[in-house]
Each structure stands twice: as structure tokens, then as C-alpha cells.
């Protein structure tokens, strides 16, 4: 890069906030992966669409790489700047721009936190239903960049389903106003859909119009203890057929141990290998009786060993904490994360094969499982033994990920269900997408970002 | 084209059914638009994915244009072959390939009729909820190509929401297996979404895996007569807030006259300018009483002039026929069709402007309105006066469409809500998509179809 380029950016956009202090470079240069030492050129904090466009045009002229940056809660390194990139943080563009009661949409800037979006929707008696544990710190722009899923997908789908319109600065600096919140619009390629899940490699989201919906009916939360893995899919099938599920989340005894260690309250006495937290519509007493009847049927069939139904909102929150607290409780162990998915119908066969694989390949490591059974999505966290160096640990984990990727490929699965590919999963993209698809993706990338300035090296090597 | 090319296709794919009789060329060369005289080179009716790939590879070598062809019920000329193209009809690939009870998906070939898909879903106690009047003759491949909407979008969304996976032969002959029915898959650009609504210009759908869902609860159908256009949006707001709508369809007195003329039964005595057919969940007597209370409230406020609640399935079907029979009742008048949309919130302002526009520009023509108010989607059919020649009629209509497109652009609307752009709306694409978007669309087209053999001239000029 021309060393005077940064000075030129400042003179071209005099109001642009630019940070170059080492502490800022460190803070904004990494995400939750913590694997790559941050080394950005500088941090730009635009306050307007025009400033974003100005930065992108400048970057094209000087061939400077840009890393779009939201809450940096990503787990695939998509927001890491380790190669002298300019971090373009959307942190200052975090306002609610408008609410439309007839269209039931909320228009926001990309840097707003998911939790703030949810709160803004509730103010209007509606909900934005995408939800997951990082809600307080992740940004809606990052949610869009990875098509974030979470704990309510079984009822509400992924982020994609809730994006009515997007304003995007493409890699060439053009501002695109995609779909403009139309419900029906059959006027050619839906570029909005292409942007969702593109991990900042095609364009920078500068405004999003989100669909909202009615709050769900009153619900009930249950914690279930299961005797074995076979019971899991059977309980899921039974509950899905008889109840209206909002969530069906599973975790293992090992996961429970960690979350209890981090201060959560035990809700079921005794040790069981698998647990489920499920939430379902329970509008009235009849619905609650129906849920109890389904529960008892599963107990009689030996599918459920024990269970608790929340008797209060506080208890419901405590049961949810057993599932939602897992990721945080593991953080101290620097886990290596796999976030994989298969079709729901392929889960049992796939689970059997990877359990055997992990037992064989990780005999001495602690493996923590949890996930969204109703979406075919499993999170496999491998904890670093204190005796292993970081580098050796990663090397061993990558070896297993290669085997896991092969197994996934045989089952038609995905190496990234909801975290994105970023840097972490880039070497395994071929297990999920064919060579022909990857070639087309490269072609699309070149159309939107001809100079390759947007998040280079992420997603596509 | 090299005149021996067709012979080479036959020798390369000896089992391929090829038609060249004038009657077949006529039959397969046009869709419901009837505006362009059909003039295809030949009709190919492949029976397998391999034959489709063979045709596409051959077409690339000989630079022959291909028109992918389903039920040819399209209203934008997307399936017209008027320039010596090879029509690639999917009519022989029309089977159900599989049902998965756990994933609740149905895998079908592209040539299957929508009605056959709906019937196959019902056999398994589930529904495929996309629905519209052409269900008996349109094909699922065509539905995907235009992201078809219809009469249940207010509850279930467009075709896009129901596509779990697509197998596609891209313009370069590669077979793509897109998304493989995964619920969560954040592994790069979602090319499945790009294919949906691409009108056969990027690839040919050769297999689709469709999501199914539970049947809706028991419902009620009402016909409402409204005193004026202002009442329409108010009744919609009231009904949406208080009832769980499955459909909310509007039509004018002029539309009613045509459908009654075609044999439908009058359900409300007296003449009113606007009508609504609405269907909503009515699980029990309480729900029916609630609906009646809402209806009576609207009557008291002067928003509804008269109404009928269906007392039987037969009467519900008769009320629906008043709305669904409109298109067929107009066919004899060779209508010029506009299929436009705006955000729901923009409907009132937009309606006022185009009513004035149409009254001014079409003083001597009969204009028939109907549409899906809950989706912001209006169908404006202009009937040809017997005194006008076809060519003069089209010229006059195109003049008005230009003015309409300008009005749409000011309101952020779309020139095609659910019919696609095809040939009919191509000249107006700029009213809905910016120059920057169209340039990106051209770039994407070149990536997927480098030789420009797939439906050239459709969507993009």
C-alpha cells in the first residue's frame, strides 16, 4: 500500500473517525476465535452511508483490503484483520431508523445489537424472533453476514427469513437498495438473498429492514433427561408431532457439568447422559395437560428418564440457562469449535458415525456436545488439555475436522451450519460445496468486488 | 446455427425425444401471453438429468439458445420461443421422487404440476401451501423460475420459502446440488436463492426438494362488499389485527361482472364498487363469533356495506370462485396485464395516483382490478376494445405501462410482483432495479451462462 493512502483517506473524508492506537488495533482486529494475532492497518468508524461509500472507493483506488466489522462475536474468524487490512467498524451506525406499523417492519443501521432490535420490536407489541446467546453483543449486520440461526429456528427459521430489504455498498462502491421491503417482487435475481450469508465478501450492509411478527402464545419450558442417544430422535419425533415446538435443544452430561461449574442451578438430580431443553406453546390448561400426557407417554416407553416442567418464569429462565450458558462456561478452556449440520432425517446415522470417530480420534480430550436437534445442527466443542500447546492442539483438531468433513460429505451435511466459513472452515469448504459451486461463487465474488478488496481470504481462499 | 447441429444432438442422445412438426412447434413455442408468434427450432423432451446436461453441452458448442419450458402458463413471455430457440420441455420429468417424513420434504421432478404436488403432500397428511388458480397446469419448475406467489402468501410466503434444495443444470452444463435440504447451512453464497426467480436464465431446475407443513386449522370464508377504496385498507387492518388471516383478496365490481358472466353465482345482491374474499382460522365457535363481531364492528363503522359468511364447503368454494375465476373469465378479451406491487403501507397513496392515471389515460377502455391486498400486489387487466387492432392496443397499453412504471418507481414498487419480467416487462426493468443492480445481474448471468444460451433476451435485454 502507498504509505500516504491513509492520510489521503483522512483528507478525503475529514469527519471520518480513524483509530490507529495499538490498543484499538488489537480490540477491533479480532473476533471470538482468538486464533490469529490482530494486525490491522487502522480502524475506520464511519457514521454514514456516504462515509462507507467513500472508504470503499478509496480502498479500490489504493487496493487496500477492508474487513467489515460488527460485534466481532463470530466464531469463524470472518471479522479477523491479521494482514494489514482496514477494519470498517459499523459500531457508530447502530440506530433504529424507523418502524412501519402497516408493513410491520423495523429499519435499522447494521451496527445495532440483536438485543436492541428485539427490544425495539417489543416496544411496538411485536417480536424479532431470531435469538441466540450472543444477543447482547452481536450486531444485526453480522447476523446477516452469516445468516445467523440460533435457538428458535425450528419455529422461525434463520435470519434470511426476516430480511425484507437491505441497503448495501457493493465492492465497487455502488449503493444498492435491495428489495425495499416488498413482499412480492419477481423482477430478476434476488441480490438481497445473495448478500445474506456472504460474510462481508460481496458488500457491506449499511441498512436493514427487518420483518417483525406477533409474539408467540404463552409457552412452557421443560428439561428432559434421556437415557441414551437413540431416545433423542424418538422424543423429538413424539414432541414435534403432538406439541407446537418453539425450541428443542440438546446437550450432554459433560456440557451440563461445565455450565453447573459456572454457577447454573442443577434442576434434575442424578446423572444422565443426555438432556433436552424444550419450549412449546401452552395457551391454556388443556395444552399443559397435553404436554404432560406426551411426557408421561415417553417416560412409560423408557425414552425419558426424568424431567422438570418450569413452574414460573424464573424457573424457565433457570432451565434455559443450562443450555444457553454452555458456550460461555467453555470459553476458559479455549475450545475448538465445530458447527455442523445434516438433514434432520440423517441425524441418527451421522451421529453414530461421528461418536465412533471422536472416541477413536480424541481419546484423551474432553468433547462437549450440544445443539439444535430440530434443525439437524450440532455443536461439537473440543477442550484444550492444559498439557498441549495451542499450536499442537489446533493441529490435532484440524486432523479430526478433516475426518469429520469427510463423514459430513457422505451424509450430505454442512461444515458450517450457522457460524460461517471465515478463516476457520475455509480449508473444508470443498466438503460442503462442489468444485462447480465454488467456481461459480468465485465468479460472483469477482462481479461484486472486482478488485477483491472486501474481506479477502475469508470464505474463499 | 450449423444446420447439422440438430442431427448431431440426435446422434449424441439417441433416446432423446425431439419434435419438429409444425403443430408441436406452435404448441410448445408459446405461453399464455399469445403476443409473439412461436418459431422454435425444435422441441426436446428429455427424460433424465443426463439428457438435460447433454442438451446444454450441445447448445454451448453450437451456440443454440435454449428456452426451458414447464406448463407455459406464464404471463410474461418467459417461455416463449420466437427466435429459433430449442425448447427444452420438462414435461416428461414430472414424477414424485421421494417423501421424507422426518424432514417433512417432498422431492419432485420439475415438470410436475403444482396440483399434483399439493395432492402428494396431502397423501402424507401435510400440505404444500403455495397455491393459485393455474395449479392444474403450471409446473413446479416454472413456479421456482418466477418465485410464484398466489393467494396464500399472506400466511405462507412465496415459493422461495418452500424450496429446501434444488438440483440445477447451470448454463455451463454443470449439475449443481444446491443446499440438499439442510435447514442450516452457512457455507457461502446461497446459489439456490439466486436460481429462484431467475426465469431460466441461469440454470435449468431438474429436481426440487420442497418443504411441507401441517394443514392449517379449520377456516371460514367471507365475501365482503365495500363502499369505497378507503374502506379497503381499514378493513384489512382491522381483520389482520383481530383474525388469523389465510387470505385477503380484493376485486372490483367490473371483475365481478365478468366472473358472473362466465357462470359464477352471485352471492350478494346489490351493486358495490369493491369486494373482498377473505379466509381465516376459525377453529371453534368462539373463533367464529369473534369473526362475526369484527365483521359487525366494520359494518357499524360504515366500512363494510354487506357480507356473506360461507355456511358450507360448497358455499366457500362458490365464494372463492368469484375471485379465482376472474383471470379465466377475462381471457376471451385478450387482456393486457399489469402485475405490480408496493409495500403494504404504500398501497393507499399509490392506489390514489394510479386510479387517477388510469381514468385519464384509458377513458375508453375497460380496466379490471383485483389483487392480493395483504401482499401489496395488484393485478390491473386492460381489456381490448373490439374496435382496436392488436398492435394498436398493445401500443396504447405500453404507453400507460411506462407512466405506471414511473409512478411505481416513485413509490418504491415493483413492475412484476409474481409473473416475472420475461419479454413483457423487460423494457420496464429499470423502474424497479437500479442501473447498478442490472449491471450486477448481467455479471451474474455471464458467470452462470458464459455463452448466453439460456433463455436469451428474457429478463435482461
Number of β-strand runs of chain A: 16
CATH class of the largest domain in chain A: Alpha Beta
Largest interface: A-B, 75 and 74 residues
Strand order of the largest sheet of chain A: 13-10-12-11-15-16-14
Overall tally of structural domains of chain A = 4
Major β-sheet profile of chain A: 7 strands, antiparallel
**What oligomerization state is this entry in?**
homodimer
The CATH level-2 architecture of the largest domain in chain A is identified as: 2-Layer Sandwich
- Structural class of chain A comes to alpha+beta
Low-pLDDT regions of chain A: none
Overall pLDDT metric of chain A: 95
Principal-axes shape call of chain A: globular
**DSSP strand (E) fraction of chain A?**
15-25%
Question: Gap between N and C termini of chain A, in Å?
Answer: 21 Å
Amino acid at each position: 500500500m502507498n504509505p500516504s493512502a491513509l492520510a489521503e483517506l483522512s483528507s478525503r473524508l475529514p469527519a471520518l473517525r480513524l483509530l490507529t492506537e495499538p490498543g484499538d488495533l488489537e480490540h477491533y482486529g479480532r473476533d471470538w476465535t482468538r486464533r490469529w494475532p490482530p494486525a490491522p492497518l487502522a480502524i475506520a468508524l464511519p457514521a454514514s452511508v456516504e462515509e462507507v461509500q467513500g472508504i470503499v472507493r478509496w480502498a479500490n483506488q489504493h487496493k487496500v483490503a477492508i474487513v467489515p466489522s460488527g460485534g466481532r462475536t463470530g466464531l469463524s474468524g470472518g471479522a479477523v484483520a491479521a494482514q494489514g487490512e482496514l477494519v470498517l467498524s459499523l459500531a457508530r451506525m447502530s440506530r433504529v431508523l424507523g418502524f412501519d406499523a402497516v408493513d410491520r417492519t423495523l429499519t435499522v443501521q447494521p451496527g445495532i445489537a440483536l438485543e436492541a432490535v428485539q427490544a425495539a420490536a417489543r416496544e411496538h407489541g411485536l417480536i424479532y424472533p431470531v435469538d441466540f446467546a450472543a444477543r447482547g453483543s452481536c450486531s444485526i449486520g453480522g447476523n446477516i453476514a452469516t445468516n445467523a440461526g440460533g435457538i428458535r429456528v425450528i419455529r422461525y427459521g434463520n435470519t434470511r427469513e426476516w430480511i425484507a430489504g437491505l441497503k448495501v455498498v457493493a465492492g465497487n462502491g455502488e449503493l444498492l437498495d435491495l428489495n425495499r421491503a416488498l413482499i412480492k417482487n419477481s423482477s430478476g435475481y434476488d441480490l438481497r438473498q445473495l448478500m445474506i450469508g456472504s460474510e462481508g465478501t460481496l458488500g457491506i450492509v449499511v441498512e436493514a429492514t427487518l420483518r417483525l411478527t406477533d409474539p408467540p402464545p404463552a409457552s412452557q419450558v421443560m428439561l428432559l433427561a434421556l437415557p441414551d442417544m437413540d431416545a433423542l430422535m424418538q422424543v423429538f419425533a413424539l414432541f414435534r408431532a403432538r406439541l407446537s415446538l418453539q425450541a428443542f435443544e440438546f446437550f450432554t452430561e459433560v456440557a451440563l457439568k461445565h455450565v453447573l461449574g459456572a454457577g447454573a442451578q442443577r434442576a434434575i438430580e442424578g446423572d444422565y447422559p443426555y438432556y433436552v431443553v424444550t419450549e412449546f406453546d401452552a395457551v391454556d390448561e388443556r395444552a399443559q395437560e397435553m404436554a404432560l400426557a406426551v411426557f408421561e407417554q415417553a417416560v412409560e416407553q423408557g425414552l425419558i428418564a426424568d424431567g422438570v416442567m418450569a413452574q414460573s418464569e424464573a424457573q424457565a429462565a433457570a432451565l434455559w440457562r443450562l443450555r444457553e450458558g454452555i458456550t460461555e462456561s467453555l470459553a476458559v478452556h479455549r475450545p475448538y469449535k465445530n458447527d455442523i449440520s445434516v438433514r434432520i432425517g440423517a441425524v441418527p446415522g451421522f451421529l453414530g458415525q461421528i461418536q465412533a470417530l471422536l472416541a477413536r480420534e480424541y481419546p484423551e480430550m474432553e468433547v462437549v456436545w450440544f445443539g439444535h436437534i430440530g434443525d439437524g445442527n450440532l455443536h461439537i466443542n473440543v477442550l484444550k488439555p492444559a498439557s498441549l500447546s495451542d499450536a499442537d492442539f489446533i493441529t490435532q483438531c484440524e486432523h479430526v475436522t478433516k475426518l469429520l468433513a469427510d463423514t459430513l460429505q457422505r451424509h450430505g451435511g454442512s461444515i458450517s451450519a450457522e457460524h460461517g466459513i471465515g478463516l476457520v472452515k475455509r480449508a473444508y469448504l470443498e466438503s460442503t460445496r462442489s468444485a462447480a459451486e465454488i467456481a461459480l461463487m468465485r465468479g460472483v465474488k469477482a462481479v461484486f468486488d472486482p478488485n477483491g478488496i472486501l474481506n479477502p481470504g475469508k470464505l474463499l481462499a
